[in-house]
From TrEMBL:
Keyword Cell inner membrane set for record: yes
Active site, UniProt feature: 75 (proton acceptor)
Membrane-traversing stretches: 37-56, 62-81, 102-123
GO cellular component terms listed in the entry, alphabetical order: plasma membrane
Biological role: Catalyzes the ATP-dependent phosphorylation of sn-l,2-diacylglycerol (DAG) to phosphatidic acid. Involved in the recycling of diacylglycerol produced as a by-product during membrane-derived oligosaccharide (MDO) biosynthesis.
Gene Ontology biological-process entries: phosphatidic acid biosynthetic process
UniProt entry tagged with the keyword S-adenosyl-L-methionine: no
Catalytically driven reaction(s): a 1,2-diacyl-sn-glycerol + ATP = a 1,2-diacyl-sn-glycero-3-phosphate + ADP + H(+)
Keywords attached to this entry: ATP-binding, Cell inner membrane, Cell membrane, Kinase, Lipid biosynthesis, Lipid metabolism, Magnesium, Membrane, Metal-binding, Nucleotide-binding, Phospholipid biosynthesis, Phospholipid metabolism, Transferase, Transmembrane, Transmembrane helix
PROSITE patterns documented for this protein: DAGK_PROKAR (PS01069)
Name of the protein in question: Diacylglycerol kinase
Amino acids binding a divalent metal cation: 34, 82
EC number: 2.7.1.107
Amino acid sequence: MADSFGSHAPRSPFRAWQAFLWSMQGLKATWALESSFRLEIYLFAVLAPLALWLGADGVERAILVGSMMLVLVIEVLNSAVEAVVDRWGAEHHELAGRAKDMGSAAVFLADLNVLACWGLILLPRYL
């Protein structure tokens, strides 16, 4: 019996490899087109080793690094929303503007999450 999502290729190492290649294409496109993503990658490259050094245990390290990974994930999704909205048309539309603003707000909230995680973990040690 076919699954509820229609006919898909059977699960195989080839399908997993193809999914990996599509993911790499998405990361490459985001890197090439989004300066904010590049900045966040540079910050991650500097702060991730610092997080691994400053975290007292595995949980703290996971929270410090994971909060930054979440920013990258949301930035990629925001870029995807913007690409779809821009593909739809260049003329201003209230819903298109709202979608872009919401994507930007999601990145902002993820940035606040990084500040909260880092602050809650590290500030008590140094105050």
